[in-house]
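Table S2 (continued). Query chain:
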Amino acid sequence: MRYDILTPRKIVFGWGRFEEVGAFAKVLGRRAILFCGHESAYASTTHSRIISLMQEVGLEVDGGIEVRQEPEVEAIDETLESFREEGYRAGDFIVALGGGSVLDTAKAVAALATNGHGDSVRDFLEGVGRGLAITNDPLPVLAIPTTAGTGAEATKNAVISSYDPPFKKSLRS
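Corresponding output:
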């Protein structure tokens, strides 16, 4: 038997490692676009602390795209539209701070932002869309999970769902 396992380039964990986020982020680009949950990150000091840590190393930080729900097709499309309207440029990267919904939304937007040949995330989903391929590298993503369990920080996949018609599919970049 033979296996290939694709994982993120680097996974760090341990007590106090959050304080190193600026150093980890600095190698990814010049401007961080922060994705976070609409309640959890703002209810704590985590949101402001992560911005400070990145600014301390000279990064420009766009403080927020709020993820308000599960990564459903319509929500991803709306978030992507807002992201594109803000305008991203060379040197931009995404920092995803939150649970699985935030991380999956950020990964989907990172992939679709550089692959503009579809009208919707649905076009790229297996079995329900047009079968379009992710041909360009996504924007870099620094994933900072605040919950345990989904494992979204450890894969390139973003799980996207829909209620009409009902499905749950992976966007693979």
